[in-house]
Specification:
Largest sheet: 4 strands, antiparallel
Number of strands: 6
Number of domains: 2
Subcellular location: Membrane
Keywords: Calcium, Ion channel, Ion transport, Membrane, Transmembrane, Transmembrane helix, Transport
Main location: membrane
InterPro entries: Csc1-like, CSC1/OSCA1-like_7TM, CSC1/OSCA1-like_cyt, CSC1/OSCA1-like_N
Organism: Genlisea aurea
């Protein structure tokens, strides 16, 4: 890619961004689109425009973002959303402070150097020589000018560690404030106990658990909820809910027909496979009959499940949150595989089918999943390399000859050369997260938020190894693997050699992500089109329409690894090619501006973990920093700058920093500090309500009273 092509791709990205912003300014002011652009406010019972001025200014969202506070984010969207913005502002701060030194110092040092750039050190894979002159590649071997780049490596490291320390303290404060809130949360009065020993004598599981905790905690123990195998009852419950939705739809269709015809036209349905075959009957009568049958079947299965399908796990409830916090971090038994406890997640988060899994089964599952993830990461290199090879214009012309007249048009050719490989990579990566989330849940994890964090970690390592390192050395991937196999010490040198050559690819990649990505995020064109298509052709009832515009959450499992990829790319290139820093600043600055309105007006959190994702974010930022330090050491070695040995302390310092932060902060993110839990509540909680909030929906029944449920739970298995 030459310099003109790069500028063309950058200008195209910016124009697309402006078009999408103008669309956002126009579409978001149409009342029919309020449910797409303001769903969070609507679900909170607020007017979409309450406190906001109706304006045609396409950049009014920037003013709204700048006037919002962290307290607004916590109040409306929770601590997890606020922690995500701490991550964005921390990385933004690292890049801004780094750029204040690197740009005015390193660019003149590189530009004024007189050197012929070796072919293997160019920062572009084409004729982008102007970037080479502003990069470390322009510095001669053994040149004293390399001292400036070495000092810059130290500067980036110290700035990163300082801001990460401040951020860790701030997030700990956010978590503490939320957990000591006078407004109680149901999960603060409960813990999860797993690996309950086998029953002895004639005790029921309920009697075994109650007597055990009563002996330890006395009157502070309230009651227990034994985990059951709900697979059958869940299936019936889901079928029942499906028929209820169908009944609502049929009644709506009938009422709609009655408005034009007094007698109305009753909808019909076929009773056979998928409603496609069988006898045609009155839909409303048929659905009512099926609902009655399923309610009776559900109640019978509920009783059977509660009595005969009890498992070796339970939710334990206490009379106050201090006792619950203390119990969740206690060692109850002398053996690690018996009576293991942890704090309870929110009721909506619990993955019930994972609770009964035994200790050693969970351990084995974890190792098997790690091996599967390793295979996934390794073998995904093959299709990514294949796609990279296929998405060149020459290959496309050979595979699809009819495209030749189109791609030969100079303007189209320039745009395709700039964007085709990046678009192919982004689309390919979009297919992976669902599979990684499935693997994470298969480990035996108990909560949705933990599964999301685990999937996010797997996706992060995938993107680093397959996208960053894969793209960097992808042209000679298998040759590189053979080289590393023969000489493991050559891995650092290989990465350092290959890294500069991919600079222009990643410059374009980052530009595409922040201009087009954030433009699509704000304009919400795709959700808007999908909503209106569903509303016109599929939805009848209000419930169906609401389901069509339901916004979902931020999607941390994919969003954070994608952000971390940009962190890694920008850090690793920050000293080699400092021009990438403004692109990184634009990415995280625009991200911060774009997501504040989205969090306050669009996305609705599906869970709250009170900032538990932060330690994982912290570790990955420092891991990216270590990769940057090691790469710089290798690149200095290529330049035969033997003072590079002064960089050896940096990775060691970073590892020590991780250890210190983990010892100081991490435990509070695993459990709740008793000092935090001891703060007084605004009102005394109704423990019966707390208990019932943990009962799975499929085990609840309108006809079943609290005493009946307690009796069923207390019966022997």
């Amino acid at each position: 890619m030459d310099f003109s092509s790069f500028l063309t791709s950058l200008a195209t990205s910016f124009i697309l961004f402006l078009i999408l912003i103008l669309l956002f300014a126009w579409l978001s002011r149409i009342p029919a689109n309020d449910v797409v652009y303001y769903p969070n406010r609507i679900l909170h019972g607020l007017d979409p425009y309450d406190g906001l001025r109706r304006t045609r200014n396409p950049f009014a969202w920037i003013r709204e973002a700048l006037s919002s506070t962290e307290a607004d984010i916590v109040r409306i969207s929770g601590v997890d959303s606020a922690v995500y913005f701490v991550f964005l502002t921390t990385v933004l701060g690292i890049l801004v402070l780094s750029g204040l030194f690197l740009l005015p110092v390193l660019l003149p040092v590189a530009a004024t150097a007189r050197s012929k750039i070796p072919a293997n050190e160019t920062t572009s894979q084409g004729s982008f020589n102007d970037l080479d002159k502003l990069s470390m590649a322009h510095i001669q071997e053994k040149s004293p000018r390399l001292w400036a780049f070495l000092i810059a490596t130290y500067w980036v490291t110290f700035v990163s560690l300082y801001l990460l320390w401040k951020a860790y303290k701030h997030v700990s404060h956010l978590r503490a404030e939320a957990l000591m809130s006078p407004q109680f949360k149901d999960e603060q009065f409960a813990i999860i106990v797993r690996d309950i020993p086998a029953l002895s004598n004639d005790q029921s599981r309920k009697e075994q658990v109650d007597s055990y905790f009563k002996a330890i905690y006395g009157d502070l123990f309230y009651r227990s909820l034994i985990v059951t195998d709900n697979s059958k009852v869940n299936k019936i419950y889901q079928e029942l809910e499906g028929y209820r939705k169908k009944l609502c739809r049929a009644e709506f269709v009938y009422a709609e027909s009655s408005s034009s015809n007094p007698e109305g036209t009753k909808p019909t349905v076929k009773t056979g496979f998928l409603g496609l075959v069988g006898d045609k009957v009155d839909a409303i009568e048929y659905y009512n009959r099926k609902i009655k049958e399923l309610i009776s079947k559900l109640e019978a299965e509920q009783t059977l499940t509660l009595k005969d399908n009890q498992r070796a796990a339970a939710v334990i409830f206490f009379t106050n949150r201090v006792t619950a916090a203390s119990a969740s971090q206690s060692l109850l038994d002398t053996m690690v595989d018996s009576w293991t406890v942890s704090d309870a997640p929110e009721p909506r988060q619990i993955i019930w089918e994972n609770l009964p899994k035994r200790y050693y089964e969970r351990e084995i599952r974890q190792y098997v999943i790690y091996f599967v993830v390793f295979l996934t990461i390794f073998f995904y290199m093959i299709p990514i390399g294949f796609i990279s090879a296929l998405t060149t214009l020459d290959k496309l012309k050979k595979l699809l000859p009819f495209l030749k007249p189109i791609v030969n048009v100079p303007t189209i050719k320039t745009v395709l050369e700039a964007y085709l490989p990046q678009l192919a990579l982004i689309i390919f990566l979009a297919l992976l997260p669902g599979f990684l989330l499935f693997l994470s849940k298969a480990e035996g994890i108990t909560s949705e938020s933990h599964a999301q964090r685990a999937a996010s970690g797997k996706y992060f390592y995938f993107t680093i190894l397959n996208v960053f390192i894969g793209v960097t050395i992808g042209s000679t991937l298998f040759t590189a693997l053979k080289t590393i196999e023969k000489s493991p010490n050559s891995a650092i040198t290989l990465l350092a050699t290959s890294l500069p050559e991919s600079a222009t690819f990643f410059l374009t990649f980052v530009a595409l992500k922040f201009f087009v990505g954030y433009g699509l995020e704000l304009s919400r064109i795709v959700p808007l089109i999908i909503f209106h298509l569903k509303k016109k052709y599929l939805c009848k009832t209000e419930a169906e329409i609401k389901e069509a515009w339901a916004p979902g959450d931020l999607g941390y499992a994919t969003r954070i690894p994608n952000d971390m990829l940009i962190v890694t790319v920008v850090l690793c290139y920050s000293v080699i090619a400092p021009l990438i820093i403004p692109f990184g600043v634009a990415y995280f600055g625009l991200g911060w501006l774009s997501f504040i309105p989205q969090v306050l007006k669009v996305y609705v959190p599906s869970y709250e973990s009170y900032g538990r994702a932060w330690p994982h974010l912290f570790i990955r930022i420092v891991a990216s920093l270590i990769l940057y330090q090691v790469t710089m050491f290798g690149y200095f070695a290529l330049k035969k700058f033997y003072s590079a040995v002064f960089l050896i302390p940096l990775p060691i310092l970073s590892i020590i920093f991780i250890s210190v932060c983990n010892k100081k902060f991490y435990r509070f993110f695993q459990t709740t500090a008793l000092d935090v839990a001891s703060h007084p509540l605004k009102e005394t909680p109704d423990l019966k309500t707390v208990f019932r909030s943990f009962v799975p929906p499929s085990l609840k029944c309108e006809k079943r009273e609290e005493d009946e449920l307690e009796y069923a739970l207390s019966s022997s298995s």
